[in-house]
Amino acid sequence: MLLSQYRTTDGRIQLVARDGTQACNVATDLSLYDLAMDCAATGTSLRDRVGQLGMSDVVDLEAIYAAGQMLPPLFHPDPAHTYLTGTGLTHLGSASTRSAMHEKDDKAETDSMKMFRWGVESGKPVGDGPGVQPEWFYKGTGHAMMAPGAALPSPSFALDAGEEPEIAGIYIIGPDGAPFRVGFALANEFSDHVTEKQNYLYLAHSKLRVCSVGPELLVGDLPADVQGYSRILRGEETIFDAPFVSGEANMSHTIANLEHHHFKYGIFCQPGDVHVHMFGTATLSFAKGVVCQSGDIYEIGAPAFGLPLRNPLAIDDAPQSPRVHVTTL
Hints:
- The protein is 19% helix and 32% strand.
- The chain contains 8 helices and 17 strands.
- The protein has helices spanning 32-42, 46-53, 61-66, 95-101, 111-122, 193-198, 203-207, 255-263, and strands at 2-7, 13-18, 23-26, 55-59, 70-71, 82-88, 135-141, 145-146, 152-154, 165-173, 179-188, 211-218, 226-234, 237-246, 274-278, 297-301, 309-315.
- The strands form 2 sheets. Strands 1, 2, 3, 4, 5, 6, 7, 8, 10, 11, 12 and 15 form a 12-stranded mixed beta sheet that branches. Strands 9-17-16-13-14 form a 5-stranded mixed beta sheet, with no helix packed on it.
- Strand 16 and strand 17 (309-315) form a beta hairpin.
- The longest helix has 12 residues, at 111-122.
- It starts with a strand and ends in a 14-residue tail after the last strand.
């Protein structure tokens, strides 16, 4: 089942479901966040609850998308209670680009390659114990999550504006502090790779950018082998088109291991919070020398996730603002 949300012409959030090609409004005024929190509190499965509510009108999701009404599939009503985070070096083949960025003159094993090797060796643990912890990064709060179709702003101080096609796990924290996975969605983890390339310690800075998620959320398990594509469109021309893969068959970690190492921290288990956790990628246009421009459109798609995720790029080309001054109270 695929779930999505859009903003109606009168300002409401409307939930949509489909189990095939036909999309229908779910017969409820609840957002997916409200519905998921209720399911967590009552022990009801999301699929069963949607089935109990039933469907109303058939809707044209492509038309809603084109009209700019699509919303991220799930978000907290207070953006400060949505965490945007992710892991890197989790996919087979993902280390080569990163390692090349930070290759040492003596050709010794880079820190990126070392962490990738640890994942290959211990990222899929056998038994109940956790595997090795992955690289982890923070992107911001829900203020940085752009809707499908919305522009991805790149600040004037950025050195690059590059896409990262990924799968994101979407979670809510239940009333007792337990994490619940609502589903999986496509994500563009939009980063500044030129800043990152300067020094791997700048990785944290390079990730403090917006991202986009959606438009549809897959309820249930993540397929073991996700086959998708990542494109960049410039006017009528496609300037980048490459496959991307995800799912555990293409990863050096299990999803369960990545989830364990995120939610083991108590700060990430506060009741009511939303987490959008991106699982990494092995496909980047940056690795092919592509330099994106304002107006370029990122398109990330995979059949299992319904409609593709599309966002135009908007680079702030104004001169950098003066140094920020903080006032003492």
